[in-house]
Amino acid sequence: MNNGSTAPRPGHVPVTRREILDADALERTLARLAHELIERNDDVASVALVGIHTRGVPLARRLQELVAERSGVTPLLGSVDIAFHRDDVLVRAGGAPLRAQPLVRSTELDFALEGRTCVLVDDVLFTGRTIRAAIAALLDYGRPARVQLAVLVDRGHRELPIRPDFVGKNLPTRVGEDVRVRLAEVDDVTDGVELWGPVDGSTTDESDEPNSNEPTLEREARA
Predict the structure, then answer these.
(1) How many C-beta atoms lie closer than 10 Å to residue 39's C-beta?
(2) d(Cα 85, Cα 37) in Å, to the nearest integer?
(3) What is the pLDDT of residues 142-191, one digit of tens each?
(4) Of 151, 144, 179, which is closest to residue 48 (Cα–Cα)?
(5) When you count CB atoms within 10 A of the terminal residue's CB, does the N or C end of the chain come out lower?
(6) pTM of the full structure
(7) Residue 116, burial from CB neighbour count under 10 angstroms (0-12, 13-18, 19+)
(8) What is the pLDDT of residue 84?
(9) d(CA 6, CA 181)
(10) Residue 5 — φ and ψ, nearest 5°?
(11) Whole-angstrom Cα distance, residue 17 to residue 143?
(12) Are strands 117-125 and 76-80 parallel, antiparallel or unpaired?
């Protein structure tokens, strides 16, 4: 997608959109991540890739296929939902939720975690609160030997002491910007990563997002 500003519409704040990764670059990035996963884990058979809903799940599936092609060993695959472990949905004293409540999806971990290396997979790492919730959700199902983190994009601005083990792309951003990941399995469009930012210091309008009903989970600042 070309750089530049979107045309303003009534009731919408204009934004700039810059492509960070196109489909080919995203594919190469995942191939590199798969190689690093193999290099860092001597026993690939003990590895389980656990995708964080939503876009972390297809990313974990793609990494599973790439690791299997390169190592000859297919790691286990699972998914985890963080809805009940988020720190922004708790309602105290009978009050109304401060934000819209998250959509609850299924957690699928059809294997024992004990003795395994569980690699949490997500699309964008931001404040770290989604990852904290994912670790809490994972530990509800067992005690893995260790937990690693693989993310497609690390955009910075951490609020918790969380650091990824595998990073597809480090992308410096401003707080008011959005990193928007497109995956064919979820968005039914060509793969890619874009950086959206407000024009002239205005606030990005979420309704301009192509997939606003399925926001990237790692946007904890608003999610």
Answers:
(1) 8
(2) 27
(3) 999 999 999 999 999 999 999 999 999 999 999 999 999 999 999 999 99
(4) 144
(5) N
(6) 0.80
(7) buried
(8) 77
(9) 18
(10) -90, 145
(11) 42
(12) unpaired
The answer to whether the beta carbons of residues 106 and 81 sit under 8 Å apart is yes
Residue whose pair of structure tokens reads 């993310």 in the numeric block: 151
Whether the Cβ atoms of residue 49 and residue 111 lie closer than 8 Å to each other: no
* Closest CA relative to residue 108, chosen from 56, 185, 66: 56
Q: Among 113, 121, 38, 41, which Cα is nearest to 72's?
A: 38
Amino acid at site 130: T
Tokens of 212: 């606003």
CA 124 to chain centre: 4
Domain ranges of the chain: 15-86+101-208
Maximal C-alpha separation, the chain:
56
The token pair at 192 is: 């890619």
| Residue 131: both structure tokens together | 């990852």
User: What is the dihedral angle through the alpha carbons of 184, 187, 190, 196, rounded to the nearest 10 degrees?
Assistant: -130
Residue from 108, 169, 153, 164 nearest 131 by CA: 164
Residue 46 is encoded by which pair of tokens? 């003990």
Q: Looking at the domain 15-86+101-208, which fold is it?
A: Rossmann fold (3.40.50)
